[in-house]
Each structure stands twice: as C-alpha cells, then as structure tokens.
C-alpha cells in the first residue's frame, strides 16, 4: 500500500520551504516511482487563524494515522500576545506529546562546501556525518519532585533526574535500529561516575545491546568527555545516544560544528506502529523566521534534508535519501547560496525557489 505522509507547512517561512519540498516529492514520484498518499493540514498560527486552536483534533488524529509527519515551522510576532495554551508552539508540543515522540534525532552533517562556516577547523568537520539521539520525554526536565521551596530561611531550586528502565530501553532500541540503517556504531553518553540514573542508563543500554543488537559496535563515554571529543575529533562518532539534558547541550554543540540554521534537519521518533514503522515527525531545526518571511529568501535545505531523513528512517529508502542529500551537496559545491549561506558581500544570493530549482536539476542529473 502507498505510504501516507501528513504535511504541516505551518507559519512564516514554513510554507515557503515546504513548497520546494513538495516539488521534490513530486520529482521522486515521477522519476523514481516513489509515491505517497499526501494530506496537507494546518498547524500553529495558521491553525489558530482557521480554527481558534494551534492544532485541531482532526489534525491530531491524522498525525496519529500517518506513516510520517513533515512539519515546516510555527510561530510569529502576531501570536505573541495569545494565551499560553493557544500559542503556535503548543501545536507542536501537542504533536510531540500525544504521538509520544521520545527519540529526537539531530544529525550534524557538514557538507564540504560549507566547512568554512564551522566554528572548528575545516579538516575536523569537512564530510562530518553523525547523529545525536536525544531522549526527549523524560529525565530532569520532567522528573518529580521539582519546584522552588523554602528551606532553612532560603529558597531551594529542585529538579529530579529520573529514568525508568522502560524509558531507557525504548530510546536505546531506537538508536540501535538507526545504527543498523547507518554504520552499525553507537556511543552512549551519561555520567555513570556521579549519577545513579547514569549507572542505570549504562546498564540498560548494554543489556539491550547484548540481548538484541550484538551486531552493533557499542561504546560508552562520560557525557563531559563526550562534549570534549565532539569538538576535538567529531568524526570518531556515528550515532550518539544520550539523555534529555545532555542531549540538549550536545546537540547544540554539534549543530555549531556544521554552520547555518538553514541547513539543519531533525526527526522525532516514537514507538513502532502496527506496520513496523516508528511514529515519526520530521522538521527543520529552524523556526518561522518572521524577519525574512514572505520575501523568497528562506533556505529550503533544512526542510529538504528533513524529507531525506523521512525517506531513510520511515520509508526504508536509504538509497533515495542519499540521492537527495548528494543533490543538495552538489548544489552547494556549485556555489548556489541562499542569503543565510553568503560569506562575502560580492556573492549574489539565490531565492528559495532558485535553490529548489537547483536541487531538482541536480536530481535530474543524478
Ligand atoms: P528562527 O529559527 O525562526 O530564526 C533565527 C534566525 O535565523 C533569523 O534571522 C532567521 O531569518 C534565520 N533563519 C532561520 N531559518 C532560516 C532559513 N531556513 N533560511 C534562512 N535564514 C533562516 O528563530 P527565532 O527568530 O528565534 O524565532 C522566530 C519564530 O519561530 C518564533 O515565533 C519562534 O517561537 C518560532 N520557532 C519555531 C520553531 C519550530 O517551529 N520548530 C523553532 C524555533 C523557533
Ligand atoms: Mg536547546
């Protein structure tokens, strides 16, 4: 049966970058026989304008049914004064929560042509392609007890790092499954030297590996040392598995290894559905960029690369995902640049659509 894809363009530059992805999806249909049963719907401010809520129940139900969700971006200054529960971001949070997307995948991929954007030396990052898997629904951001309490005449701020075996088990499996679609290598990061949750994390990850993924090359590293190694020699890693807090920090560090926000895709995965595919939502890391919205300036690559991730991780089309990533790489190597990728005054930028045209031409030539 034809796999289903729910497309939620959202607000600001979301619809602009998604329009280019739609053309690319059409290319794969026409030229590679890859067709999807596509539904498009509203999220964020666009949903609020139409329905008075940032995510309608019907849209939520469609997301639960879809084989994958592809989202643009949400938000905008015109929604800043809305009630907290009606803000565009709540639409995104509802999707993540109700689909129970516990594994956040953040690739740090450095195309050769953009290596000079990195905060590190070219040799350290050129050709880098690693993936951080961050646990997203538990840990210290959610653990109880939490709060600010009075104690002995002063205030005390409390958060609790708390992980159950089941929570570690499921995110570990997500990382190992991913590793099988990549290079069969996982490095798990925690602080087992000073944290009980770290001891349990290491124990459960190792047990899941030994029982069901002995083919994967698994190593463990303390998260602080991991941060250091990420900046020193990031190419030693392939998949990095870590918790919510460390993943938040490490994925932001990894993002800076590669440069522009306009290039960074992401995915959030949940439990496997009946057809074996994980619940999944793919989205660029960037937001709705109101400062450039409506001007045809947005870089569509982050959203295009998010679709490539969907091809690889939801639809088992790793070769086609690589075809698309190589097309993006070729276009960058040819010097095609949206404004966010300009390095000097002399360069002339291409538009959102111009970047889409160039990627399609590169696909034609592939
Ligand atoms: P942003 O990511 O929208 O923009 C930050 C800067 O990067 C801006 O100067 C923007 O022009 C530039 N930029 C971002 N994406 C780009 C692209 N594809 N091509 C070229 N330049 C790009 O973050 P900001 O400004 O903090 O937030 C703007 C709105 O987006 C807010 O309403 C915020 O709440 C929302 N937001 C939504 C997210 C989501 O939908 N996942 C994530 C982050 C922010
Ligand atoms: Mg963060």
From TrEMBL:
Keyword Acyltransferase: no
Gene source species: Rhodovulum imhoffii
GO biological process: L-leucine biosynthetic process
Subcellular location field: Cytoplasm
UniProt cofactor note: Binds 1 Mg(2+) or Mn(2+) ion per subunit.
Signal peptide: none
UniProt-annotated binding residues for Mg(2+): 224, 248, 252
Protein name listed in UniProt: 3-isopropylmalate dehydrogenase
Gene that encodes it: leuB
